[in-house]
Amino acid sequence: MLLSVVRVSNLCCRRLPSVTHDASSVSAMCAADGYRPRQPLVVHASLASQNNRQHSAISRNKRDSNIVSIFAAAMPRFETVAAAAAATLAAAATPVVAAAATAVVMSAIFLVVSRPVNQQLVDLENQQRAAATARDAAETARQEADTALARAQSAAQEAAEAAELRDAAVRQQLQDAQRAAQAASALAERRARVSAEQAREEERRRAELQRRHDEESARLSSAGLDTAQYNVGFVGNAGTGKSTLINAFQRGQGTASVSAVGDCTTESSSHPWVCVPGVVLWDLPGGSTEDHPRESYGTDHCLEYFDLLILTYNRGSSWSQLCGHICAYARQHGKRVVVVYTDFHHAVENHAEDADLADIPLAARDLAGRVNQLLQTPRERHDLELPLYCVDSRSLKRQFLSASYDGPALVEEVVRSLAQRNPDGVTADTLWEQFRDTATTTATTTTTVVRAVATAVEAVAAARV
Q1: Rounded to whole angstroms, how far apart are CA atoms 87 and 103?
Q2: Apex CA 341: angle with CA 339 and CA 344, to 5°?
Q3: What gap in Å lies between CA 117 and CA 165, rounded to an integer?
Q4: Rounded CA gap, 149 and 142, in Å?
Q5: What is the Cα–Cα distance from 336 to 12, expressed in whole angstroms?
Q6: Is 358 helix (H, G, I), strand (E, B) or coil?
Q7: pLDDT truncated to tens, each residue of the chain (465 aa)?
Q8: Cα separations (Å) of 93 from 89, 90, 417?
Q9: What's this model's pTM, rounded to 2 decimal places?
Q10: Using the 8-state DSSP alphabet, how is residue 305 labeled?
Q11: Beta strands at 269-272 and 279-283: parallel, antiparallel or unpaired
Q12: How far is CA 227 from CA 37, 230, 274, 404, 417, in A?
């Protein structure tokens, strides 16, 4: 009987999910187990339902093993109590009553004994749930650790890639710097070669200029250049009326060659001024030509040897680079430059027609004002006075000191410049008065005044020597 109770208890504790054990199910399980009780079994339904609720989340295999171990531990106590109850009932009643009473007692004993077992099962389930929670937490932690590791690996890979990019950028910068250094070195070498070549070219140019200067100096000396005399150089672009102006100064007795087209002066030629002994008028070749380039005009024609430079300018030319070069050269050597607008009467007539001016004097003043305005820039640039004289060479040649426009003023400028070094007792006013008095007589008459002017000029020359 004790064995039957144990079997029934054991079967009752084997709860399947969503199965409630009643009397019929217990009997069926007993039959399946090979046990047939003599009396109908009474199973406490609340026990099966309670056990079913407590153990619904535990797996079958583990639960069975745990139940067996728990009942094995409780079995000695159960057997002792069951044996004592069976002996008591057997002695007090008939066999049938004893059997029934024994079943009831066994059920009660089973309930009493199973309570701590159920508590142990609940504790076991709680432990298993805690273990599952711990496993879940561990799994979550592992996943988080894997995620953190993946992020760390990704960050490390990104850092490595960034480092590689930086290294590549540094290498590229280094290569660029090397190429730049090579290019700079090559550029420096080219510049050095160019500078050396330019220096050699400049040296050759200077040597060539010096050679031409020496040749021109020798040619001027052979043509009569004497630094003891007062030398006036007529310079400017080709075809601006230099030779015509010299012949006007000579009052019809000049020998300067004149050409109607272009410039016929190929070499410097001297023309002693018939009005004042000791003064030489020099007709220099026109510049800005193939034979007389403007870049070396001053050096080629030894402009530093002349005391006064008369720069001719007319309506057919403009203020060119040659004019600027002459002004710079004169400023460098401390020479005075006078600007003469030749052929002014034709320029005035054309200007009056172009500007629709009926008054010729008004047209002359307007044209002179425009030319003066044009000269303002070179005056400031070269720090020179650059006085302007508008001259009609034909009128100057015929009428001389009574010529139209600025012809008389130009002659006065030349005469007064003779007193640059001011010998004792000779001033510019004295020279001009003496010259003016002489000019009122005939051109071929030699008077005492002319001799006085010549004496003054000789005194100037002597002072210069």
Answers
A1: 13
A2: 165
A3: 69
A4: 10
A5: 143
A6: coil
A7: 444 444 444 444 444 343 444 445 545 554 554 544 444 444 444 444 444 454 454 455 555 555 556 556 656 666 676 676 666 656 655 666 667 766 766 676 666 666 666 787 888 889 999 999 999 999 999 999 999 999 999 999 999 999 999 999 999 999 999 999 999 999 999 999 999 999 999 999 889 888 888 888 888 888 778 888 899 999 998 888 898 899 888 887 766 666 544 556 778 888 999 888 888 999 999 888 888 888 889 888 899 999 999 999 887 666 778 888 999 999 999 999 999 998 888 888 888 888 887 788 888 899 899 999 989 999 999 999 999 999 988 888 888 887 788 989 999 999 888 877 555 556 778 888 878 877 665 443 333 444 444 454 454 444 444
A8: 6, 6, 178
A9: 0.55
A10: G
A11: antiparallel
A12: 167, 7, 19, 33, 15
Which pair of structure tokens corresponds to residue 103? 């079943």
Q: Between the CA of residue 186 and those of 178, 200, 277, what are the distances in Å?
A: 12, 21, 65
Residue written as token pair 């034709």: 346
The tokens for 125 are 């389930």
Helix (H/G/I), strand (E/B), else coil: 259:
coil
